[in-house]
Structures are given as structure tokens and as C-alpha cells.
Amino acid sequence: MNLELGDRSTGAVGEGMLELLDRRLLDDGAKLYSLIDGAKFSRLNRLVSPQDKSIELYSLLGEAAVADAVYAGPILILHKARENCTLLAKLLDEYNSAGFISLIVSAENLADLVKRLVWLTEVRHEDGTEWVMRYYDPTILPHWLDVLDVEQRTSALSGTLQWLFKNVRGTNQAVDFGIFGSAKILDSRPMLLSDGQCDDLMALAMPYIVMSQLSNDNPKVLDKIPKNERYDFFYRQIEVARGLKVISAVDIKTFCILAVMFGPEFSTHPSIIKAAESSNADISFSEKVMEWSAEQWELIEAEMLLLS
């Protein structure tokens, strides 16, 4: 299981994020880092100069790191000049930077921080399988934090004082953690996520999956919905779909396409309810929708316009 969900960017972060920094923490000795999802930002190697002594760059791929693939994975950058770092300013102003960068303020020893972040890139399922946890993707980060229990958060965030990112609604956000106690990390045992945690995380990530699928089919299909409202729109529609027993990935995608076409209240239309209620193992919701006549489509559109 790898939450590789495509482009879900919400624009450039901008230096407004730096206004949320608690500079007192930095003045007291904490360090400022940027965490980059290299898979979503291919230009990093062009921006980083080997002669730039104001930064230090570390791959979080651990033993899996290959020299020519370092920039394609998660990368931690120490900014010695703190908020005044030239590279940091460039990164924050990059197009769609909200999709690849978050900032960390940490009091932890650098070597221990790198070790901790490397450890966090893999998690273990209850059935023993292991998979990549893309917490370094800022669109996944807040949802990952939400599903962790207290013990897991302590292991994940020991020494971390602030974590800053742009949230799904397009707002710069700083999560203040305070000082977590030092947590022992066993390198041979990745963090265990329960079935419930995996299900919760997938439910929180599902809107991104649907948006990626729809935009891959038609890049302009999402234009009807403001960027900063898209996550909430699709999250609600997916919840409504599941309430109507529309469960499969294909059917959820169809349901969301109809929501974009007819508006968020479309699910109250009798034709939608009938298609959901009459679907079964032999005929899916999507197949029931495909059975609609041209007249039915026109009627639904006309009636939904009255509700808009």
C-alpha cells in the first residue's frame, strides 16, 4: 500500500507560512528544516548548489537510497540561515509548492531526526506486510497525524516543536506539538498501523484519489469547484455514496462525476436513489446509470437546476 495519489496541489505556499514560525523556538536553539517530497518536485537538484554552505541536504530513503534517485524521494534540508535562507524562499514560491514542501522546527539532534524520519517512511500492517508511508507528502501529512495514537505520535514527533504546511483548504497551518519525550526507535520494527487506522487513513485520502482519477480523464472537469473547496466536496460525496451502499471504487468515481455534473444535492434525486438501491452483485451502480435514457438525463439535469 503506497499512497501515491498524483497531483493534489493547492498552489504556492509563499513566504506567508514563515509568519507562523515560532521564532522563540529558533532563538532557543531549535533548527528549521524543510521536508521535500522529491517525487512531486523534479527541479530541486537544479536549485541546490554544492557550493551553498547555508544548507545541508539529507535523503530519507535510508539504505534504499540510490545515488541517482536521491532527489526523487523524501529529502530533509537544514536551513542554517533559518527563515532568511535564500533557497527556502525560492522553494516556498515555487509553483504548486503546497504539494511538495512542509517545514519542521525541531530541537532534536540532527542525526537522530534524520534517523527518525527515515524510520517513519515505512509502516507495518497487522498482517505483517510493510509499505511506504508518504507522511512527507504535505497533503497526506495532516491525515497521517490524525490517525496516530498517543504512543505513535510520541515516537513520530519526539523533539519536533512545530510542523507547518498548507492544508486542504489552502490555508497555511502550523501544528504546535510542544516537547515530546524521547522515544526509543527499533530500526528492525516499523511502526504498526492497525486495520482501523489503515481504513481511516484511506478514507481520508480517498478524495485525493478520486480527484486524481477525474483530472486524469479530463483536466478541466474539476474547474467547476474552487480549488480550496474540492477536498471537502468530494469527502462529503464519498460519505453520501457509502451511505447509499455505493462502495466500489468505480461506482464511487461515477457517483462523484455525477456530483460534479449536477451539484452536491444530486443524490436526493429519485433516479439516483433508485440506481443505488437496485444495484447488486449482478449489476453495479455505474451500469444502472448507463441504462438511463437521454430523456432521463435531460429530466435529471432540468430538475437539479431548480435546486441550484
Automatic annotation (TrEMBL):
Pfam families referenced in this protein's UniProt entry, alphabetically: DUF4123
UniProt superkingdom: Bacteria
InterPro entries assigned: DUF4123
Annotated ranges, domain DUF4123: 32-154
Protein name, as recorded: DUF4123 domain-containing protein
Taxonomic path: Bacteria, Pseudomonadati, Pseudomonadota, Betaproteobacteria, Burkholderiales
